[in-house]
Each structure stands twice: as C-alpha cells, then as structure tokens.
Specification:
- Helices cover 42% and strands 23% of the residues.
- By secondary structure, it is an alpha/beta fold.
- The protein folds into 2 domains: 168 residues, Rossmann fold; 119 residues, Calcium-transporting ATPase, cytoplasmic domain N (3-Layer(aba) Sandwich).
- The radius of gyration is 20 Å and the shape is elongated.
- The chain starts with a helix and ends with a helix.
- 50% of the residues are buried.
- The structure holds adenosine-5'-diphosphate (ADP) and magnesium ion.
- The site of magnesium ion has 8 residues, from helix 3.
- It is found in: Cell membrane.
C-alpha cells in the first residue's frame, strides 16, 4: 500500500486490538526495554468477586449488614474491588443506604458517611493507625491473605467492624504475554501492585514474574518508573486503574487496559488495548519495531 510506514503501523496496531493515540507512540514503544505491569485488572481479569464475609465481634453486625454497609460506601467507586463488593450485595438482594460525602483515595480505598456515621472501606493499611484496637482485624487479614485473598477492611467511626475476602482470576493469556515480553526486551517484566505481597507473589509465580513490588501507592509506582528511567531504561507501564494513571504518564510509554480501565487511565495512557487480550501488548511492541526499521 502507499500508506506512510508509521500510519500503517498505527493501522496495524488497531488490527491487533491496540489503539495508539499518535505515531510517536509507536516510535516510543519500539525503544522500550523494561515492562512494568499492574496486577488487579491488568494481569487479572478485573472482575474480582467476594469470597468471604467476616464480621468482627466489636462491630456487632451480621454478614448481610456488613456487606450492605461496605457496598453503600463503595457504590460510587469505579475500583474493581468496589464493583465486586457492590455486585455481591446485589446478588443477595440487599438494599443499599445512600452514602454522603463520598471520597476515594487511590491505592487505599473509600470513605463515606452512611446513616450519619463515617464508614471507611479499603486496604488493610487503614488498620495501621488504630494501634491496639486493630489486633483482631489484623489476624483476620493474615488468615485471608494466607488463603491468597485480597483482604478489604470495613471501619465504622474508626472501629474495624469486619472484613471481606476477594479473589480474582488470572487472565488466561497472562503467562504467554510475560514470556513474549521477556523475549522481546531481554528482561522479565516487573509487577507493580497496591495489593499485599502474598497475593502478588502467588500470582507472579504463576506467570513467570520474579520482581514483585507490593503495597505500592500511586506515587510509589511513579518512583519505580523514575528510578529505571534515571538508569537510562525506557519503561512501558501497563495498567488500568486511577492508581496507575500517574505511572502511565511518567513512563516512556503507557498502555491502558480498555475494558476494565478507568476513564483516567484511558485518558492518560499513550495507547489503549481495546480488544480484551493481554497478548495484544507484545504484538504491538513487535509491530512498533518493524515499523521503525521501515522508517530509518
Ligand atoms: P492494584 O495495583 O493491584 O491494581 P490498587 O492500587 O488499585 O491495586 O489498590 C491497592 C489496594 O488498595 C488494594 O489491594 C486494596 O487493598 C485497596 N483499595 C483501593 N481502592 C479500593 C476500594 N475502592 N475498595 C477496597 N479496597 C481498595
Ligand atoms: Mg489495577
């Protein structure tokens, strides 16, 4: 065809299911030597589901009340874990109380006022400020994490009232994608996740990743990217969440997962995987290199 090589590279990327926002993206992708991937929604399907509902004695709530309270607080969040909590409440036919003063802290969780009381739902890191009061909750967190779950804690007026255990399925093409990216860059990709070490390492082992950075806040993901770039590396970040947006922006190249992706991630990324296949990523890296050879 008579199409200029870069334009035809963009068109080919589209055929592989990746929407590149500009021709520059294809040039940048061709230079990538380090790949960092997010876990939830990126290596996993992004449709996690609630497996455990564990009220704590101090809260005096039954399972349904605990789940309903968490879902009411999570209702306005687009985080995959929040959607799992709301879906579990719906499946049980629970009616959710309206939440006021909703705020979300990326990488941590949400806060809302429900029936005049402050409810926080999110990472076990929320227990850190509670000193002695959190001991029972910490034990439950460890039990859930040992079982490979992501533990979500629920606090009401600063008191831990219960936990939810959440599981997520690995994408079927995750291991093949990691193997292909390792071949292409000569280095195994790195996992950057806000989740706990045990869940992260268990999943990493299944897909062939050994470098795992867990319990990262959005700014920690950025710091990892900046560190590599300062060493002269060209980093590709792949993510889906609001929590990934700063790292997607900081990287030499950022690709967002389209289906589960948050609006902010889709806007910030240089390219978007529009077909829900992780293998589109090594395919488009390979393509970008072919395009560059045609241009130079
Ligand atoms: P990942 O990097 O695996 O995609 P995130 O950075 O999105 O994870 O979240 C990190 C952690 O913060 C989660 O594992 C969870 O503990 C907690 N978290 C963040 N947002 C929420 C939320 N809306 N509901 C519950 N937990 C949340
Ligand atoms: Mg994610």
């Amino acid at each position: 065809s008579t199409m200029p090589p870069l334009l035809s590279a963009i068109a080919n990327a589209g055929r592989h299911g990746v929407l590149a926002k500009s021709a520059v993206v294809m040039e940048r992708l061709a230079q990538v030597d380090t790949v960092a991937l997010d876990k939830t929604g990126t290596l996993t399907e992004g449709t996690p589901y609630v497996t455990d509902i564990r009220p704590l004695p101090d809260g005096g709530l039954d399972e349904h009340t605990l789940l309903g309270l968490a879902a009411a607080a999570e209702h306005a969040s687009e985080h995959p874990l929040a959607r799992a909590v709301v879906a579990a409440a719906r499946e049980r036919g629970l009616r959710l109380t309206a939440a006021e003063d909703f705020t979300s802290v990326p990488g941590r969780g949400v806060t809302a006022t429900i029936d005049g009381r402050e409810v926080r739902v999110g990472s076990p890191a929320l227990l850190a400020d509670l000193a002695g009061q959190g001991a029972g909750a910490e034990r439950e967190v460890r039990a859930l994490e040992d079982a490979g779950r992501t533990a979500v804690v629920v606090l009401r007026d600063g008191v831990p009232v219960g936990l939810l255990g959440i599981a997520d399925r690995l994408r079927t093409d995750a291991a093949a994608t990691i193997a292909a990216l390792t071949r292409l860059t000569g280095r195994a990709p790195v996992l950057l996740t806000g989740d706990n070490e045990r869940a992260a390492e268990r999943l990493a082992a299944e897909v062939g990743i050994t470098d795992v950075r867990a319990r990262l806040l959005p700014q920690d993901k950025v710091a990892a990217v900046r560190q590599w770039e300062a060493e002269g590396r060209r980093v590709l970040v792949v993510g889906d969440g609001v929590n990934d947006a700063p790292a997607l922006a900081a990287a030499h190249c950022g690709i967002a997962m389209g289906r589960a992706g948050s609006d902010l991630a889709l806007e910030t990324a240089d390219a978007v995987v529009v077909r829900d296949e992780l293998t589109a990523i090594p395919a488009v890296v390979r393509l970008s290199r072919t395009a560059r050879r045609l241009v130079v």
